[in-house]
Amino acid sequence: MKQLLAATTLTALILGGTTGCFAEPAPADGGDQRRLRVGLAFAPNARMSPFTDDASLVTQLGVTETLVNLDPDGTVTPALAERWTVTNPSTVRLTLRSGVTFHDGTALTAQHAAAALQHATRARPVPKALAQIRLTATATDDRTVELRTAAPDPVLLHRLATPQLAILAPRAYQSDPAGPDPIGAGTGPFRLTAVRGTSGATLQRFDAYWGGAARVAGVDVRFLPDGAARAGALRAGEVDVINAVPVAQLPHLGDHRLVEVPLPRTVGLHLNSTAGRPFADPRLRAAVRAAADPAAIVASVYEGRVDVGAGLFGPASAWAASGRTGRPATAAAVPAGTRITLATYTDRPELPEAASALTAALTGRGFAVRTVVREYTALEPDLLAGRFDAVLLTRSYLLDTGDPIAFLASDFGCAGSYNLARFCDRAFDTRVTRAGELTEPAARQNAALQLEADLIGRAVVVPLAHERARIGTTTDVTDVARDPYERTLVTARTALR
Amino acid sequence: MLGTLGRAGALAGTAAGLALVVAALPWLRGDDPARSVLRARLSEREPDRAALDAVRAELDLPAHPAAGAADWLLGAATGDLGRSWVDGTPVRATVAAAAGASVTLAAAACVVAVLTALLLVAPVAWNAAGTGRRWSSGPRVMAAGTAALPEFVLAAVLLTLVAVRWRLAPAAGWFGPSYVVLPALALGVPTGGMLARLVVTAVDTTAAEAWVRTWRTAGCPRATLAVAVARRAGTVVVPQVAILFVGLLGGAVAVEELFAVPGVGRLALRAALAQDLPVVQGCVLLLILAGAVMGAAGVAAHRGLLGPAGAAGLVPAAPVRRPRRWRIPLAVGTLLAGAVTTGLLRDPDRVRLDRRLGDPSWAHPLGTDPVGRDVLAQFGNGALLTIGTAAAVTALALLVGLAVGLRGTRARAGGADVLNALPPVLVGLVIAAVLGPGLLPAATAAALVAWVPLAVHTRNLADETRAGGHHQAAVLAGAGTRWILRRHLVPAVAGPVVVHALTRIPGTALAIAALGFLGLGAGHDTAEWGTQLAAAVDYLERAPTAVAAPVAGLTLLGVLAAYAPEDVR
Predict the structure, then answer these.
(1) Which secondary-structure segment (H or E) carries A257?
(2) What is the rounded distance in angstroms from the CA atom of residue A369 to the CA atom of residue A358?
(3) Exposure of A128 by Cβ count < 10 A (0-12 exposed, 13-18 middle, 19+ buried)?
(4) CA gap A402, A441 in Å, rounded
(5) Same domain for B519 and B438
(6) Residue B215's pLDDT is what?
(7) A289-324 residue pLDDT tens
(8) Which residue, of B57, B80, B103, is where some domain finishes?
(9) Each residue's pLDDT tens digit, B352-372
(10) What is the maximum alpha-carbon separation in chain A?
């Protein structure tokens, strides 16, 4: 018994001794300090470095800002730069807003902005938005930044809106230029004061914010990767806002508010058209299109909380719906037990269910289907090696530049770096190249729709659904950002009633 | 002295071997670490040549696994564990922070487990002390049922009820002592059931020993005797607590993910998926050190609890006889077999999207799953896959465990404790890298870790038997090793260890299922219970029967195992 007692005491001691390992005191409960409590789905995985996925995490929390923003139509709007002139096809001059200070008190100058962009061009790997161009940024005076590219670039301004090109104070780059530290170095309405590993983060209102001080005193962030736990924290009143509400949790939100924003993100079945593979035959691809029932999948698996797939481009892009015309479709063949593999990943909980539904539908049509479902990271090598006949994935089509042509080139071009359909048609490539030279956004969008019609008509990809961002909030929260690019969430206007 | 050297040598050898295995992961997987590291940093960045080259230039990948392992070992010897490939932070700090969270959680879970076990065992010890009646089915069934609860289902239930409905504890996060409550309960309660199961068996054995009758006849107070019986029974179990602690340290991946606990299991899994080798190696080093330390501590505690009698070799061992009970196991077995048979007669693969998450009805007695498949049919077909695979794995683990445990001539912390510290998930990743994902590799991974607790249990029981008078008499009489093994050791050890193995079948099934959850086990759309649970647990509140069916199956299986005959002779 003594030993048991000793063991219990020991464990109690261990427990007591290790409480220091917790990530600081809990985020404040109760709204009296008017601090917003936020539960986010993705934890930082590289110390909030803007050269990684953490970039959009810090812009979502209102810590860092870019020179320009994109509005839902894909038009460039002012942010840290208040105006700009395109002096020639490969040069843009931006004039910075005056009165902007970094969180450490330094006033923003053109030299700072140019240096921040130059750091981004030296990041390893280089941000996706800058991957295809060679950018040089120079300050011509205290408020003017001049950007040059090696070749004419019609979407140079669009590129500047990517969170990875956020402008940080010089101190961010001091200790590690390859992984800048945004603590005290942003320009946004909230100052990042502490990052607690992968558990949480603390932000304070930045009173000198150029856009006027934020309406809440600060933000306490918890990173909650599990959807049920995230929704649970909201339902239990532990957080005020969560992002990425899973479909499974929707009926439980009760009195909470659900903010839905159409995303430029499409769920589709990409068919591997490599020669010798079953789907090299366009008529078998058409058979898949005939078998898939997007409306049924949207109604059941997604419970109607996404839009039925109409094409590659969805309702997040107003131009897509208005400019789309009919398309000639290939006739379907009857597959006689053709063996195919269908792959998808578990990172998005709805995809495996959709895969089950598709597998059943394809089997019913006469295919012999083997379904492979793995964590994305474990799936990707086989995915890129083209080992599957059909890949079900959700893909953002405007992510870094807001430009549909770049997406078509990378996903359906012969040299495309993410061409899962392994589609290669020289005529198609030529049309993509020509479309990439157009400077008028409307003309580019129109060209994108014609290329899309070609792909869908030949059933290279079968679109199933257009996704929406789903943000859950308590009824006290007003004005969370409705951003189709998911680059902002908490802003200076976000308030607690 | 030699023994200490031997232990240190075994430990160093294991560490070097594992470092080599981890360093060889990219070669085994045939997967470029530059790609997976890029993916961990930038989920949607196209892996074009320029991007991959940029990442690769930073990683300074070794030319050969052996070179990589040697470099790492040299660094580790001087306390330098390198820097993470994904975020560039020093590995030692990252692993230490995760270890802090995991040790806290595992310790709290062990407290919960011991309390649960005491609650379940107290009536049995009391009973044994008072009447000498040894077989008590109630606590035994409860213990077995508790031990069979899948921790990630329990975690989801606790989250919904305790945090969301009753608001008694925070839902998820890691910001203070109150955040430990739910994960510790989710991990500790099933572990407590497993402990209780072992103690109950040990109490039965103890109650049959002659000294108990002597004490009782001498008028020893009942409470004193109950404590003495419990203490005597506890000796077998203490090393198990140490083992469970280490298992919880790195193996709590699913619970850590759900409750957002920044622990070692989650860190190791993320790092392994990203092929962040320095971090994986740091985690493995931590776990094998913990395994070695706790293994030794368990052995020491066992020695201490055996007391002077054990040290003097005077503890008597007696055969256990208990009345046969047929009614309950027969009823449970019939129920399980009936449900499985009914399920097997139905179509498990028929997808009906319009019947998503249907309530139980005449057409679907247990309702339907998220794509409208019949839950009863899935249950029946899953039973064959799940129980069959787990039984095969356990049988293999039993043979290996008995062989290894009986061979050990003295209690020692060696390779077994070290291996036990490795989470099955990590082992599964390595196996899947070599064999490719599937049910067989998952079963292999589960078998690789399943034999360890059985070997430790065997070792402890054999130690006790060797301390018994009849064993010493046999040795003095000049009996050969084989004779002693056959006539004394195997009969004394086999029964309890077989029972132990049987109670582990549900656990083994779950370990296989956890691998399936990561796409490293049974394939998608396979009606395996774990795969089914992984798909249904998100809908716990909406379609409880889809979760309850496999859980009930596992629990019934556990209860059935509790009635396994013990006096195998």
Answers:
(1) strand A257-271
(2) 10
(3) buried
(4) 10
(5) yes
(6) 87
(7) 999 999 999 999 999 999 999 899 999 888 888 777
(8) B80
(9) 999 999 999 999 999 999 999
(10) 86
User: Which residues does chain A have within 8 Å of residue B257's beta carbon, measured at their own beta carbons?
Assistant: 225-226
Say whether both B312 and B263 belong to one domain: yes
Percent of chain B with pLDDT over 90: 25
Residues B377 and B387 both lie in one domain = yes
> Considering only CA atoms, which of B533, B43, B55 is closest in space to residue A376?
B43
Which domains are seen in chain A, by residue range?
A: 1-63+188-256+474-497 (3.40.190.10), 64-179 (3.90.76.10), 262-468 (3.10.105.10)
Same-domain status, B211 and B356: yes
- Scored b (16 or more CB within 10 A) or e, B78-96 reads eeebbbbbbbeeebbebbe
Domain boundary among B31, B59, B80: B80
Angle at B249 between CA B501 and CA B529, to 5 degrees: 50
Domain-located, residue B464: yes
Residue B108 belongs to some domain of the structure: yes
Q: Do residue A15 and residue B174 have CB atoms under 8 angstroms apart?
A: no
Interface-testing mutation among B538, B539, B547, with chain A (most A C-beta atoms within 10 A): B538
B529-542: average pLDDT: 88
Res A83: pLDDT: 95
- For the record, the structure tokens of B407 come out as 């061979």
Phi/psi-derived region of residue A131, left when phi > 0, alpha when psi is between -120 and 50, beta in every other case: alpha
Instruction: Indicate whether B119 and B33 sit together in one domain.
Output: no
Q: Residue A84 phi/psi, 5° resolution?
A: -155, 160
Is residue B568 in a domain? Answer: no
- If asked whether residues B97 and B49 sit together in one domain, one would say no
Query: Three-state DSSP class for A324?
Result: coil
Average pLDDT, chain A: 89
Answer whether residue A10 shows pLDDT above 70: no
Distance from the first to the final alpha carbon of chain A: 56
Contact state of B354 with A349 under an 8 Å Cβ cutoff: no
Question: B482 versus A348: which is more confidently predicted?
Answer: A348
- What tokens does B372 get? 């409208």
How do residues A37-57 score in pLDDT, each as one tens digit?
999 999 998 889 999 989 999
Name the token pair of A395. 């893909």
- In whole angstroms, give the CA distance from residue B487 to residue B350: 55
Please give the residue that has the higher pLDDT: either A98 or B478: A98
* Phi, psi (degrees; rounded to nearest 5) at B361: -150, 180
Helix (H, G, I), strand (E, B) or coil at B1: coil
Number of helices followed by number of strands (H, E) in chain B: 24, 0
In a domain, B569, yes or no: no
Residues in chain A closer than 8 A to B91 (CB atoms): none
Query: Based on the domain organization, do B76 and B101 belong to the same domain?
Result: no
Among A1, A232, A375, select the one facing B159 at the smallest CB separation: A232
Chain-chain contact of B41 with A373 (C-beta, under 8 angstroms): no
Query: Rounded to an integer, what distance in angstroms lies between the CA atom of residue B65 and that of residue B23?
Result: 5
Contacts of B130 (CB under 8 A, 6+ apart): B222, B226
Contact check, Cβ <8 Å, B523/A299? no
| SS3 call for B172 | coil
Domain extent for B71: 1-80
Which amino acid belongs to residue A465?
A: A
On the 0-12 / 13-18 / 19+ scale of CB atoms within 10 A, B210 is: exposed
Indicate yes or no: CB of A238 within 8 angstroms of CB of B110: no
Question: Does residue A26 register a pLDDT over 50?
Answer: no
Please report, as a single letter, which amino acid is at residue A20. Answer: G
* Residues B93 and B58 placed together within one structural domain of the fold: no
Q: What total of structural domains would you count in chain B?
A: 2
CB atoms within 10 A of CB B120: 23
The contacts of residue B140 (CB under 8 Å, 6+ apart) are B124, B197, B200, B562
